[in-house]
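Please describe what follows:
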Amino acid sequence: MSRWSFTKIDANMKVVILGFPEKLSLWHDWQKEYFRERGFEKLTVWSRGGLSKTEVNMNRRSFLRGAIGVAAVRLQQQAPISSIPTPRDFSRQDPIQYPDPDIVALDNRFRPYIVNNTVIRRLHFGTLWAEGPAWNGVGHYLVWSDIPNNVQMRWIEDDARVTTFRNPSGYSNGNTFDFEGRQLSCEHGGRRVVRYEPNGTVTVIAEKFQGKRLNSPNDIVVHPDGSIWFTDPPYGIRGNYEGFKADSELPVAVYRVDGKTGQIDKLNDELGGPNGICFSPDYKKLYVADTGAPREIKVWDIDGKTIRNGKRFVQLDIPGTGQPSAADGIRCDVDGNVWAGARPGVQVIAPNGDRIGMIRLPETCANVCFGGAKRNRLFMTASESLYAVYVETTGAHIA
């Protein structure tokens, strides 16, 4: 957007930026929005003969955050997009220079969501294929699945301790919590969706449709009307690593279970591999990640108990390479952005389908969720590890 020539922060905490922007009016509008959101005061912008000059005064509270932000903008405007994560040893607590270089704005709309004085942390290492993160707001813990090891794990916020939460887990994949705080899980092993009751019993929510067994329920969400929505691809029955090898009895599909009657309705069976699933913040749209051909995220309007007007929301590639990528697990934030586990880590898509940011990770990220006391921490299950980073937004839904 701009070819930089000079940036200075003087002793009086005044930032002076000189540059030759390609589009002067857009550059000025963006600067006003960016600096004022970060606590800068007395913003002055002027131009003459193609030269743009910006002067802003900071209060002391905004000095650190603002200075870091200016540096981040400068570096990211100059550097080409790379999908390769910055080399670091996540097993150590060595300091990382702020802002975290692996939280990358691909569009200015992503910049307000970046916390410039935080870094990505690895919270756990040792799983075989980490999946299905879900936040429990009452217990202040995160539960996630290690599918091949047939266990569910738990990260406890109070002391950052990790324990085995459920063993065996039925080779569970996706997890969530309903509006009564009960955990729901998609089991590859049992080819079913189950709910864990407060008294310790297990209730089967769905295991057959029209008398035939489901394939291997994958991911799951709950609606305020009490209904349960889930995807059912064949991945858990293709071999013995993540379940038990078996033949499919039903086409892959997306289902809805009525919370009152238990009736199971098929919403769609036209996807190649329905995988991650989430609602828009207002529950008016349904997003489903299709990891079969053509590897895209689709979106539908929700019409009562059905969905209609299905269309492509986005088809992802690896930024800076053009190589194909695909969304796995997905979540919406309160602004309607979709955060997707997709190479090279997490990709963030605006409500209109534009990709605006990415978080680079050293491992393949299968799924994400928002959690923490303020629900402003993004948890990422990635192959052998669990990662987390604070963001300037919150999750749209309860888990």
In short: The longest helix spans residues 60-78. The chain is about 10% helix and 45% strand. The chain has two domains: 2-79, 121-390. Residues 1-9 have pLDDT under 50 and may be disordered.
